Amino acid sequence: TPDEGQNLATSAFVGVQVNDASNFRFVTKIPYRIHGAENGVGEGMAFVMHRDPRGTAAIGNGGSGLAVYGSPEETIRPALVIEWDTVYHPIDGQDDRANGIHIVQVNDTMETLAQTSGPGGWVWDDENNWDDWVVSVRTGDFGGSAIIGELELMYNCDGNHRLDVWLSILETESFSVDNFHFKDLFFPNEDDGFLYLGFTSSVGTVADNHDICGFLFDTDYCPSARQ
């Protein structure tokens, strides 16, 4: 989404075939930018894995919905949502940080599985420029150019059903969700089928530029330790 407009929502998904969901594993690396703040800071974006019946057309509400959440009919589900959240969004009653990475499981109910414990709020740059303020998941601007950050995920690479998350610009090196069972969420009654991967973003009464600068998703190469 651009650093303008109000209550916009965007999504983009591709379908991939999953075989042997019980042993599914993956590594993904996502270089990204969240920057601008000509009109405040908001709302955020998300990496989403889902099996919503709408497939590649799935989309939620703008603003605090992050293009994932909304009414029961609008919310993308079942889904695993990795939020780059730049504004306080108490949409599921558990998001208690104004900004950070949140891992949310969406099915009949929504549950925040983990969230970053890094610094909240925002800080001004050395010259007290409004345009260059930085919150913990925002990459911000430096010298007129947007800085690129990277989100990295690893799942089940040791066969332990652990989801590990790294964000290049956070003070915390990583955080994890133990015993996340991919099959139970996405394939409870079968072991193969289509899964949808992609991104959502939204702006509300405030806006940012939300840019995905690349995307690697690998189910074959899954190292036991971060490379």
Write up what this structure looks like.
It contains 1 helix and 16 strands. A hairpin with a 2-residue loop joins strand 9 (141-142) and strand 10. Helices cover 2% and strands 43% of the residues. It is mostly beta strands and 227 residues long. The radius of gyration is 17 Å and the shape is globular.
Distance between the termini: 31 Å
**Count of alpha and pi helical runs:** 1
Percentage of residues in strands: 35-45%
Largest sheet, if any? 6 strands, antiparallel
In round numbers, the mean pLDDT is: 80
Structural Rg: 17 Å
**Number of strand elements:** 16
Structure classification: mainly beta
- What is the string of SSEs from the N terminus onward? EEEEEEEEEEEEEHEEE
Helix content: under 10%
Low-confidence residue ranges? 118-135
